[in-house]
Amino acid sequence: MSFTSFVWEIGNISNKSSRKRHRLRRGQAHINPEASFSSSPGSPGSSTVQIEQRKWANLPPELLLDIIQRVEQREQCWPGRRDVVACASVCRSWREITKDIVKTPELCGFLTFPISLKQPGPRDTPIQCFIRRERATSTFRLYMGLSPALSGELSKLLLAAKRVRRATGTDFVISLVGDDFSRSSNKYVGKLRSNFLGTKFNIFDSQPSRDSTVCSSCELCRKTHPGKVAPRVTTSNYNTAKISYELNILRTRGPRRMQCIMNSIPVSAIEEGGTAPTPTAFTNCLDEHSSPLLDSAGRRPQVGSTSRSMQNVPLVLKNKAPRWHEQLQCWCLNFKGRVTVASVKNFQLVAAVEPSENVTITEQENVILQFGKIGKDIFTMDYCYPLSAFQAFAICLSSFDTKPVCE
To answer: Locations of Low complexity compositional bias (predicted)?
Structure first.
């Protein structure tokens, strides 16, 4: 039985007693009760909608738990997981139970909700995506799937970025949708900014990596401006990573050399038993009157800029050294069939650790992010723990910027 038929069967059971008195058009049983309705409170249709919502919301929690668990177990790939998201859209009680059942990408290996894009990927099998470049509009779109040839119209848009040229560098504004790149929009998730030469980049996140910073900031706002309602909500940018490309002034042969300092991820995350920061929801509590907590000098603290103890040393990623192929007369990396076109943009990132740090040889050789070309404007992106989809996408965007002094 399909999911739609399953849900309609439950709806028929719960609505059997009132169906003779109320004739509803198909689909009203799935209306989210938190949404606004066009019907006025006194209109004849509003009471019917409220009765219908109450019946969906008052289903026994044990029944809801069993339903959503079965849906979660059978939906193992996109677009099938749309049914899981549909469960969370029925009403508040369904949404809370769905959030408790659906695990993070690190544990289940799937991207279900938008916040999954900010959470670390799975530890074992990487999440495979592809990036489509649109030269005319200077936009880049990240899709869920192996490639556009295999997934076609079933590809799920995860993130989109737009390149904005500035006098001193380039900005890549990253959004949840492909047609709204405004920083004041609730679809804005962060940006990538480069210097003039395109050799150094900073990844800015719209929210801090630790929820405690956000909570403290909200409390500071309430204490400073008690009883005052902010007229509008503005976004903040938190420097979560730095990317640098090595200069190639002598024009020596070889691929680009890059290094990524992940300020928001401690190196202890890749150690045995270590964990990476995992946000549970998008925070939007910072308004125009509030600001992140300030340090003793009155400056905004950088995310991850704490004492240089073993627990707070940031994770450093470096590109994996390729080997020279005598027969092909080129530098080669083993992309395991995910890259088919030679390009200077292709790279694989691994952890760069010191001998004193407790990281095994296996973890040091594990490819955390790989990016490569498979068509004229199609590129694959595979990432895993401890990077998130947003961080991996931002790192890959840095490869699209022009770097004449690095090649």
So the answer is: 36-47
